Amino acid sequence: MNKTILGTGALFGLLAVIFGALGAHGLKNLLPESSLGSFQTGVAYQMYHALFLLVLGTMNQLEEKAKKSVFYLIAGGVLCFSFSIYALSTGPLLGLDFSAIGWITPVGGILLIAGWTLFIYRVFRGLN
Question: Membrane-crossing residues (predicted)?
Fold first, then answer.
């Protein structure tokens, strides 16, 4: 499982760098400032959680089951949160209306919060 967590963290990090460069250079003059700001928020959250997964994948203090649960919550949260923001931000540029998937963004946020909450709980539970 650690290999999967580390691989996912590395992939999310790589994609965050690529999407960050795309936002800073490729989309800068094509998107309104508000859309570009939202896009960069998606990139930032993706990178934060990529780094979190890299740490999680190297931790030996958590049980495998707990790591797996935290991983699924965080990975699902990144996919729902960041990737829905990318779609919503660039949709008008592509001539597509992704407004119907707008509800996915807060679901992703809830998954991220749940992942962090479970992580904190499991870390402090293990300190007994």
Answer: 39-58, 70-88, 100-124
DSSP string covering 22-46, please?
IIIIISTTTS-HHHHHHHHHHHHHH
User: What total of structural domains would you count in the chain?
Assistant: 1
Dist CA 63 CA 70 (whole Å)? 11
Supply the angle between the helices 2-21 and 64-94 in degrees, to the nearest 10. Answer: 20
Question: Which tokens sit at 32?
Answer: 């309104």
Residue 45: give the domain boundaries: 2-125
pLDDT tens digits, 44-76: 999 999 999 999 999 988 888 999 999 999 999
Backbone CA torsion sign across 106, 111, 116, 120: positive
Output the DSSP codes for 94-125.
Answer: HT---GGGTTHHHHHHHHHHHHHHHHHHHHHH
Query: Over the stretch 75-123, which tens digit does the pLDDT of each residue have?
Result: 999 999 999 999 999 888 888 888 898 899 999 999 999 999 999 999 8
Taking the whole predicted model, whether its pTM rises above 0.70 is answered as: yes
